[in-house]
Each structure stands twice: as C-alpha cells, then as structure tokens.
Amino acid sequence: MFKNKRKLVLSAISIAAALAAVFYLLCYLASLQAARIFNEVVAEQRVMKGTLTVEALRANVFGTVSFDNLVWKDDAGTLLASIPQGSFKVRPLDIITKRFNSETVTYVEIKDAVVNINFDDKMYWQQIDVFKPPKTKSETKNIQLKEFHVKLVLINSNIETHADRRDFKFRNVNATINFNSRKRLTLDFQCGNVSGTFEADALRLNGGVDLTKPVGVYDNISFNITNCNMSAFGIGNGENEKGTVQAVINGNLPTPVITGTLNMKKLKITPMYFSNVKGSFKYENGAIDVPELDARVFAGKVKANGYYNIDDRSYGIDLIGTGLHGDIGLNDPQLHCLVDLDAHLRSDGKPKNLLIYGDFKSGEGSYGIINFDSLQGTITSQHGILDFRDVYIMIDGDQIFAPYLRIENGKLKLGSIYYESDGGTRKKLM
What we know:
19% of the residues are buried. The protein has helices at 2-36, 38-45, 92-97, 326-329; strands spanning 51-53, 56-59, 64-73, 79-90, 105-111, 114-118, 149-163, 166-180, 184-191, 193-196, 199-210, 217-229, 242-252, 255-269, 272-284, 287-297, 300-309, 315-325, 335-336, 338-347, 355-362, 365-367, 370-372, 374-382, 385-395, 398-408, 411-414, 418-420, 426-428. With 430 residues, it is mainly beta. The strands form two sheets. The protein has a 26-stranded mixed β-sheet that branches. Strands 19-22-23 form a three-stranded antiparallel β-sheet, with no helix packed on it.
C-alpha cells in the first residue's frame, strides 16, 4: 500500500511538472508572438488614437513584452507620449487567437515618460476612445464605456494636462492606476512639482471612482498639496507665501466637489500681513468658497470668509479684526493703540487692481506725547495708496476731525484738521 501511495505521489508530481512545463512553454511562445505582432495589436486595438511606433521589443518567459523608445503621435503628428522604457502584459489567448480588443492589454508599466493629455468637457482623455460605438441610432443616448481592465504604473514620468482653460504640468510622477470599466478606477498618484493653473512643491491623490453607476462618482479621494504658491493664484505679494492643502474629492464625474483645509505660515496682501492662516474651503464648478478662516494680522486676531474664481482669478475676502496693533499696521512706532477692523478685499484677478476698504475703531492710546480716548474712521487702499477718511479722534472729551489723510510711498499727507464741538460746529485747526 505504501508503494502504491508513493507511486501516486510521484505520478502527481510528474503530471504537475509536465503541466508547468507546458504552461511555461505556452507563456514563452505567447510572449514571442506578442512581440512579433506588436504592430498588428496597435493597428487593431482602436482605443489609442493616432500612431504608435517602437524602437525595440523584448519578450520574457512570463508573458511580458518590454519595449524601448515608444512614440505616440496624433493624426496631425503632434507628440502625445514619448516613453524611453516600458513593458506590457497581454492575455495569451488573445495573442494566440489574434483576437485583439480593449481588454487584450492587462498591465502597462512606463518609465521616464513624457505624456501630453487633452481632456474634453466630460473629462475623458480625447486621444483615448473609451466609448462603445452604438449598434443602432436608438442607442446613441445610452453611450457605454468599452470594457477595460488594465493596471497602469508610471515611474518618474512627466505629464501635462489641458482641460477647459486649466493647464497643469506634473513632474516626477509616480503613480499606480487600476481601471476596471465595469467596477472602479483606483489611483495612487504623487508627483514632486506642479505648475500651471496652480503651483506646488508636491501633490498626492489617493482613492477611486465608482463606475458601477450611470455617471461615475468620485469616492472620497484624498487630495493633498504641499507648499502651494498663493502668488500663482494672483493672491499675495511674494513667492515664499506657500500653503498646505488637505482635502477630499467627491461628486459626480466630471464635476468634482472638493472640501478641505488650508494652512499658511504667512501671506502678504499689501498693506496687510497675515500669519498662521487656517481655514476651510469648498471647491465646485471652478469656484472656491471659504466659509471660515482664522489668522493673525498686525499681532491681532482676524476671522474671515471669502471666495475665489479659478478661471478669472477674481476673489473677495471679508474680515473682522480685533486687537490689531496700530504701530505695526502703520509702521509708526509713535502710535500706540489696539484697533478693531471691519474690512473687505476685492480683486478682479489683476493684483494691481486689488481694492481694500472698511471701517476701523480703537480704544485708548497715544501718539508720541499726545494721549487720546479713541480713533475711528474709514480706510481705503488701492495701487499702493492708503487713504483714511472721516477720521475722528477723541481727546479728553474733545473731538478732532480729519476728513482726509493719505499715506503714499511711506509718507503721510495731511488734509485739513478740525475741532468739532458737541453741537457739530467745526473749527479749523490746520
């Protein structure tokens, strides 16, 4: 009985080894066949628009084909992708039977690539044909995606994207994208530098898109930006004014809804200097709404809200400031008082046209050797000029009125100054 069992085990091992050898041989032959008919696959796949050429192909025993210097151009000859090194894996049965379709390629890996992507208004890649052609005219209203199930890995690549006036350049991209058109798209995307519509030192996306519904749904994709340059948005005066964004992407394809937080160490919007900026925001349809923001300004506290338009870069900020130090705000060490400010910032997208206006009021303070009970008035700032209007100064119960003061190029220009009695009678002092 023992000998019979031993024979059975040996037979099973022999059969398994034979099957493994056959499988090994089939994979090898399929791989070689895939390499030989690469151009035929490209001609038949009908997914990637334009022409693809490759300098060299190599096949291994695992059914993977490696390539060198793949070039993809559109029908007009514009370069869409240049890939020095890469590889792909195909379904062996498709290669053997020469039945090529959108599911033939199951895995793609590219290194050091340069890729140019143009999206349409529905955020589909224009150079990729992802739709099934309708069989009849009646089916045109129910367009369906072709069946894909492919894993794409990008290593140290550069990508440029263009979509509806929003252009981005992503450098040093490392990403893994798994696309199953019947179920889900998942991605883990990170890059070292971003420029274009916004600028940042790093960006990371991680999450997925639910494709089981009639319209794709962004499914809590984490969205993180490191050192986003605010001056690239037309906000702020310096290149070192950078913020960090942590957010989540939801909503329906192709209109994401992004909610998250913004943190900045400093932000200069002349003549105001913000620090320790922390706030929440919501992005939808090209507009950013900031319902709540806290910051420090002139050593005081500020609470603000605002909006920003991605396309024309216009924005508005409404803020309430408390305990602002007057000497810091006016850069005048002789002024000592704490100021409360109700201010509004409005920009048409051109930094030089930024308008700041509002009302201010202080408690007790002093200017040099002159003590006062309070200050109040209105403030306007535009084109580097700071105007104070209807300024009232209370000194020992007496009211001093200055209808107009201006600070231009760091110099104070005074208009007339009046003494105003309780009855409203004014006497010109200077």
